[in-house]
């Protein structure tokens, strides 16, 4: 191929010289006998040049398309290697997530051994100050002074500094909260799912100055909270009467209306109404006449959550007929410092 290219170049040079040489042009007329022969040669050379040029063009086109193919293949390989890399990264992150979970389980297991031997644990805040800083299920030891048995609780050790003991959660929606006085007294549900910790336990945990934090999530995935710097309830003889003060938050103050009211359940009407609020709102709560919030109401799923007035409501955020997707009520001592 190189040979033919050189040949072509020489021919091109020859043609160029022939065409542009004025001497030859001037010399041409006196030799009319050789004019036809010379021009024939030039013509045939021109044809050859044209042929060779077209071959050269074809070759260069082929080369170009070969090059394009190579580039295309390289890009494809590059893409494949990047996909491979992404898969490896994904696998790695899954692995570390699992690893992380195993570590948490191991730490909680090691904590379980030591936590029962301590007698100074009253709640999640005291666990936190003893360096148990992982959210999860814990067992509070029995309180000899108050004569109360041990208690399984869920500790939120992350939100706003941690140290929170959950007293209520709604998120699964399978267990009913339309229960009687006795069940609200001792508590019901599962500590990792939906539950009420029990009015006796809440009474016991709020003997010290306590803060209440309520976290909510709607069906659009938005979250709000309401915090009461002061929160306590009375004992059973005084119908677990609610006392709250010093609201702050983003959800609105929809527990204020329930302040200074007794607890009611479907079998005990302690509300401030002619109606039976617990019966109307299908839960146990500090009903006034009846609600500005109903956190122990019926659990309604997406699609049915805006049709009833007995759902899990917080009027200050979504009004009287929007049932929330998730609620958590949690407490910690006022003096808690993370
Ligand atoms: Ca009533």
UniProtKB/TrEMBL annotation:
Q: Name one GO cellular component term.
A: extracellular region
Task: Tell me which positions the record assigns to the signal sequence.
Answer: 1-19
- Cellular localisation: Secreted
Q: Which Pfam families does UniProt cross-reference here?
A: Fibrinogen_C
The family database entries (InterPro entries) matched by this protein are listed as: FIB_ANG-like (IPR037579), Fibrinogen-like_C (IPR036056), Fibrinogen_a/b/g_C_1 (IPR014716), Fibrinogen_a/b/g_C_dom (IPR002181)
Query: Where is coiled-coil annotated?
Result: 42-108
Start and end of every Fibrinogen C-terminal domain?
115-335
Listed GO biological process terms: blood coagulation
Key word Secreted present: yes
Q: Which key words tag this protein in UniProt?
A: Coiled coil, Disulfide bond, Glycoprotein, Secreted, Signal
Where it mainly occurs, coarsely classed, is secreted
According to the lineage, what is the superkingdom?
Eukaryota
Q: By its UniProt entry, which CDD domains does this protein fall under? A: FReD
The cross-references to SMART domains, in alphabetical order and at most eight, read: FBG
PANTHER family found in the cross-reference section: FIBRINOGEN ALPHA CHAIN
Write down what this protein is called. Fibrinogen C-terminal domain-containing protein
The record lists the organism as: Denticeps clupeoides (denticle herring)
């Amino acid at each position: 191929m190189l040979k033919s290219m050189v040949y072509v170049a020489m021919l091109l040079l020859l043609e160029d010289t022939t065409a542009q040489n004025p001497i030859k042009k001037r010399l041409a007329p006196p030799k009319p006998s050789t004019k036809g022969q010379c021009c024939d040669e030039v013509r045939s050379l021109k044809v050859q040049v044209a042929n060779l040029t077209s071959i050269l063009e074809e070759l260069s086109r082929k080369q170009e398309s070969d090059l394009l193919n190579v580039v295309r293949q390289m890009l494809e390989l590059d893409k494949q290697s990047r996909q491979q890399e992404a898969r490896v990264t994904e696998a790695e992150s899954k692995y570390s997530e699992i690893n992380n979970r195993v570590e948490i389980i191991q730490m909680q297991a090691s904590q379980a051994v030591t936590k029962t031997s301590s007698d100074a644990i009253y709640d999640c805040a005291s666990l936190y100050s003893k360096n148990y800083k992982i959210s999860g299920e814990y067992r509070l030891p029995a309180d000899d002074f108050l004569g109360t048995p041990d208690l399984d609780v869920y500790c939120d050790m992350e939100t706003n500094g941690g140290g929170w003991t959950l007293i209520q959660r709604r998120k699964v929606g399978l267990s009913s909260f339309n229960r009687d006085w006795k069940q609200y007294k001792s508590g019901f549900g599962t500590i990792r799912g939906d539950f009420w910790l029990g009015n006796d336990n809440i009474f016991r945990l709020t003997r010290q100055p306590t803060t209440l934090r309520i976290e909510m999530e709607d069906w659009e995935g938005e979250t709000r909270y309401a915090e009461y710097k002061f929160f306590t309830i009375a004992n059973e003889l005084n119908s677990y009467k609610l006392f709250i003060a010093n609201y702050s938050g983003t959800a609105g103050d929809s527990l204020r209306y329930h302040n200074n009211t007794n607890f009611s359940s479907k079998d005990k009407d302690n509300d401030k109404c002619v109606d039976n609020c617990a019966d109307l709102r299908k839960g146990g709560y500090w009903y006034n006449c009846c609600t500005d919030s109903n956190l122990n109401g019926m659990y309604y799923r997406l699609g049915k959550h805006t049709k009833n007035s007995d759902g899990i409501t917080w009027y200050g955020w979504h009004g009287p007929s929007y049932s929330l997707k998730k609620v958590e009520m949690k407490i910690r001592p006022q003096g808690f410092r993370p």
